[in-house]
Design brief:
128 residues; Oxidized Rhodanese, domain 1; 6 helices; 41% helix; 14% strand; GlpE_sulfurtransferase; transferase; transferase activity; Rhodanese-like_dom
Length: 128
């Protein structure tokens, strides 16, 4: 059986998830109605920088940290704020949002263009 290309998986996920514009994400984060969740690898954060106030949750641990029944559960995910996931370029985040929706997480979206677009447009970042 042939492997479904990741491009197809991302395209399909994007039809079933909410994608917020960079500006909407920045406004919601400033208003305190959204919690940004950076799912990039820690090496990416060190190399490229980070968005102030964004929670880091590596993609490989995300489902485990969200699930209250998991021994790895993180209370940070119990919030009334909209969870807005982002990665470098809005590919991994699309798959991650879809996976969390499939788990039952409802107040969730991804950020259009990811961290790369955030940085390119000159939005504020922190560096080590």
């Amino acid at each position: 059986m042939p492997i479904t290309p990741v491009k197809s998986l991302v395209e399909h996920a994007k039809t079933e998830i909410e994608t917020l514009s960079q500006e909407d994400v920045q406004e919601q984060a400033a208003a305190g109605t959204a919690q940004l969740v950076d799912i990039r690898d820690i090496r990416e954060l060190k190399r490229e920088g980070r968005i102030a106030g964004a929670m880091h949750a590596p993609r490989g641990m995300l489902e485990f940290w969200v699930d209250p029944a998991s021994p790895y559960h993180r209370a940070d995910f119990i919030t009334d704020k909209k969870l807005v996931l982002f990665c470098a370029g809005a590919l991994r985040s699309a798959l991650a949002v879809k996976a969390l929706q499939d788990m039952g997480v409802e107040n969730i979206a991804e950020m259009e263009g990811g961290f790369g677009a955030w940085k390119s447009r000159g939005a504020p970042i922190e560096t080590d």
